[in-house]
Amino acid sequence: MIAEEIKKFTATLHTQVEQELISKLFNPELSPAEYARILSHFHYAYDQMENVLESMSEGNELLHDRSKLSWIKHDLENLDSGSESVLLNQTFDLEVNYASCLGVSYVMEGATLGGKFIAKKLQELEWIEKDKHLNFFLSYGDSRGEKWKEFLNLLNAYGDANPTRQSEVLVASEKAFQFMHAVIKLI
Questions:
Q1: Which region among 88-97, 107-116, 153-162, 164-173 has the lowest average model confidence (pLDDT)?
Q2: CATH number of 2-81+94-185
Q3: C-alpha–C-alpha distance, residues 36 and 79, integer Å
């Protein structure tokens, strides 16, 4: 199963991204302005990665009903930061094909699983309101597990049907994790 291969291939990067993010988000003194800055960086990263997917019709289909940008914008607006955006020197460059789109999607879709635990921890902050500030981290709500399984089925079916393209999926997921790590480090 290609999903298991990606998990093994990107394990170190996944841990680095997770640790960097936890160090930023799980500060008991996290202010609304700091949280907005973190979300603005996520907006930048997801905008870059979603643009890659949108550049081809098959990637656009992967993104259908899965874009996270509106949830991030909603949270930012409720933090009175409007649609604050950051411009970073990080760009997400990737040879775009369906295999690479699946690799990028693996990273973005997988992040929704960790979002549930992040949201739970953030709710310990007195000023955080679930419906106003945690839409991004609670992506898909109760449908999170179902959406992840749907994606995994699609990913694994592709990997089984296209064994010679699996390395492209792995490399794209690695590049997506590297990009996320670089963006989070700039917060």
A1: 88-97
A2: 1.20.910.10
A3: 7
